[in-house]
Amino acid sequence: QSIIASRATVDDVALTDTTVADDDSTRQTNFSHQSYAGAGNRGSSRSVRSSEGAAAMDLTVKAHAVSVMVCNLHGFHRASAHVSKEAAARAIGEVVDVVVAEIGDHGGVLASFNGDTFLASFNAVRPCPSHAKRVCATALAIAERAPAVGLRLRARVGVSTGKCVLG
């Protein structure tokens, strides 16, 4: 389920998808792994061994309800070309502070930050009840706050909720 919200409040966003539930919908599946450590060893096992022959560990993957958010600063590269490198670094630092604070305040985890693009997950790394509503609240807060800091750029934010394989 993808949710697109523009100039709305979290209460305006209807979350009616019954196929995606929170933590109680987690399903565990054992993963069968092919081992190719030696030329003659092509057996299937339920464990993975390191090349040093250390003890085996169970590899379990889960189908889990997760929400993700991606955020990009519209026009950052063009705007940063007209200021010093130091000013651009300060500006992106101010935006990073806002984005990281909003993600953390709503129970998410910053998964990746590259230049002017941020990726956050909710209910993947750590449990996050009502992750779909929280990711929407985060997106709306960032879209509202980002133009007030740094180079005063608009944040383009997208969110998606669905099943994800974790392991």
From TrEMBL:
Residues 67-167 form the Guanylate cyclase domain. Residues 21-51 are annotated as: Disordered. One of its GO terms (biological process) is cyclic nucleotide biosynthetic process. Residues 37-51 have a biased composition (Low complexity). InterPro entries: A/G_cyclase, Nucleotide_cyclase. This is Guanylate cyclase domain-containing protein. It comes from Neobodo designis. The lineage of its organism: Eukaryota, Discoba, Euglenozoa, Kinetoplastea, Metakinetoplastina.
